[in-house]
Amino acid sequence: LLLNKGYDKMWLKCGLGIVGRESSFASGSRYEVTNALKRIANIVGYDSSLGPAQMKGSTAEDLGLDPDDLFTDIGALDAAYRLIKRNFNLARSKGYTEEPSNLGSKGTGNATLDIAIAAYNGGKSYMGPWCESTDSKRKEKGYKDKCSKIPKDKQIIVKNYVPNYKTERWDGVNISTHGYVIEVAGWIRKMTCIR
Fold first, then answer.
1. pTM of the full predicted structure?
2. Helix, strand or coil for residue 136?
3. What CA–CA distances, in Å, run from 56 to 12, 83, 120?
């Protein structure tokens, strides 16, 4: 349906990769239970992640979509498609390139797409530019810092960097930024139905 509307195949594969990672394509009892609870929370005023793409209603509205569309398969795919494409364009404007990120072949092989995927899950603040840390302990661990936090004369920009934040969630589904990108990239590679 979306291909017939002129949607780009590559971005659809990315959207499907997101939906695969976020909800296993709207399947399983965990998804059924949590999605119903999130829908109720949304009705009473919480801005919860909704539907197969697990997108907040406010984000859907920002993309020009009706939040109720997030509960349909096509609406969720459309929303994921729009957000990943917007994130990609923003990442490109921030200097990311189509060379591999620090994830190498574990990611998509395209730093701009890797950071766009990371931003889908964690927000635009994940995008750089990133610099070598000036803190010796952070540097020793390989951590980078936002360049905006480092004086201009001490900035050493790290090209195509994707940070690796780790999150422990209330529902036990812990995630890291790199793990998220790697999972989505794996789903994208499996999308052989769209060539």
1. 0.89
2. helix
3. 19, 11, 11
CA dist 53 and 70 (Å) reads 7
Radius of gyration from C-alpha coordinates of the chain:
17
**Contact assessment for residue 39 and residue 71, using Cβ atoms and an 8 Å cutoff:** yes
Q: Is the distance from CB of 67 to CB of 57 less than 8 angstroms? A: yes
Bridge partners of 146?
130
Q: Which residues, in sequence order, are CB contacts of 66 under 8 Å at separation 6+?
A: 60, 75
DSSP state of 168: -
How far out from the chain centre does Cα 29 lie?
24
pLDDT of the chain, 195 residues: tens digit per residue: 888 888 889 999 999 999 999 988 888 777 777 877 777 887 788 878 889 999 999 999 999 999 989 999 999 999 999 999 999 999 999 999 999 999 999 999 999 999 999 999 999 999 989 999 999 999 999 899 999 999 999 999 999 999 999 988 777 778 899 999 999 999 999 987 665
For the chain, count helices (H), then strands (E): 7, 7
The C-alpha atoms of residue 76 and residue 54 are separated, in whole angstroms, by: 8
